[in-house]
Amino acid sequence: MQYSAFSLLKNALTGHRHWQPAWRDSEPRSQYDVVIVGGGGHGLATAYYLAKVHGVKNIAVLEKSYIGSGNVGRNTTIVRSNYLLPGNIPFYEWSMKLWEGLEQDLNYNAMVSQRGVLNLIHSDTQRDAYARRANAMRLHGVDSVLLDKDEVRKMVPFLNYENARFPIQGGMLQPRGGTVRHDAVAWGYARAGDQRGVDIIQNCEVTGFRISNGKMMGVETTRGYIGAGKVGLAVAGNTSRVATIAGLRLPIESHVLQAFVSEGIKPLIPNVITFGAGHFYISQSDKGGLVFGGDIDGYNSYAQRGNLPTLEDVCEGGMALMPMIGRIRLLRQWGGIMDMSMDGSPIIDKTPIDGLYLNAGWCYGGFKATPASGWCFAHLIARDSPHEFAAAYRMDRFRTGHMIDEKGQGAQPNLH
Length: 416
Description:
The chain is of the alpha/beta class.
C-alpha cells in the first residue's frame, strides 16, 4: 500500500480498518544471496539499497529481537554533516543529502526536520577551531555559518550568556542539520525493503557461522541454519561479541550512551544546541519533550541502561547552559550500546573471511550516518570494492597508522 493523502482519506472514511501491515514477518528460507545480520537502521538501509541500487533479489535481514529494538530507537535523533577531516566530510554530507530526500524515496514520513545545528563557542581558541571546521566544510560544499554573540543571542535568547566560567562568545551553525524521528527511520527502511522483496526475519539470533576454507557459507541461528553467499555484520554495540563467534578480534569497545527526555513543554528550543564547554546536546521533540544527552558511561558494558553519575553529569551540563531546565521534570531515560572504535571513526570493510563484511565502530555518529552507511555498505557487498565516500573507513588503518581522529583524542575509545 502506497501512503498518500488519498489513502489517508479513504481509510479515515472506512474507520481505519483496511490498513495493511507495514512489512511481512517473513519465515527464513534455506539460502540467500546476501544475509544482513542486524535489523537496525544500518542493516535495513543496507538491504534496501542492495535491492534498489544494485538489483540484488534474494536478501534477508536477521534481527535477534524486534525491528527498532537497538540503537536506531535509542538515540537523540540528531543529523548533521559538520565534520572537519576529509575522510569524514564527504561521507556525512552524502548522508545529509540522502536524509533530505528520504521521505520521498521511502514513501514514509520520517519527520525530517532541518531546523539547524548550533555549536556554541566559549573561548577564542574554540572560535579558531570552529572557524577551521567551518572553512573545511565550505571547501567540500557543505553549509556552515559562523555567528557572533549577538547573532546567537537573537536566535536562542534563553541561554546563560553571562556564565562566569563558560561565557557564550558565538557559535557555528549548520542550517541544514536537524533531527529525524528515529523509530520512523527503522520502520520506513523496513517497509521499503520489504516492498522490494527483502525478507525481514525478527526474533532470529545468530549463534554461529559456517566457514569452509576461509569462505563464509552461512549462519547458524535460533531458527535454524541459513545459507548465504555473502554475510554483512551491522550489529552496532554487539559487533565484538558477534565477530568473536567468527574468530575475529576487532579494535572496538562497547560502551553505554544514555539519552533523556523531559516532560512536554510549550515550544522553546528552535534548533539543536550543543554546549561547547562540556558534552551536552539538546533539542525539542514534536511532542514538546526536551531530548538531550552527553558523554558515554565510563565502563565497558552490553547493557541497555546507564548509571546515575552520568545522568547527574549530563544534567549539570544542561544547567550550566540553560539553568531554567532545572524546573523541568525528567520523564524517561534509555541507553544504547555504542561500538567505540580506537580513533572515533567507523569501519566499512571486508574482513579476512571471504564473503564476510563489516559495518561497525560508529561511536556517537551512527544514527546520522544511517542512509550513507547503508548506501556504502551495500556498494561494498555488491561490488567487493569500497564506495568512494567510505574509502577511508578501512579496518587496516589501525595497523598502517592512517587514523581518522576527528577529536584528536588518540587511541582511547571512551574519549571518542
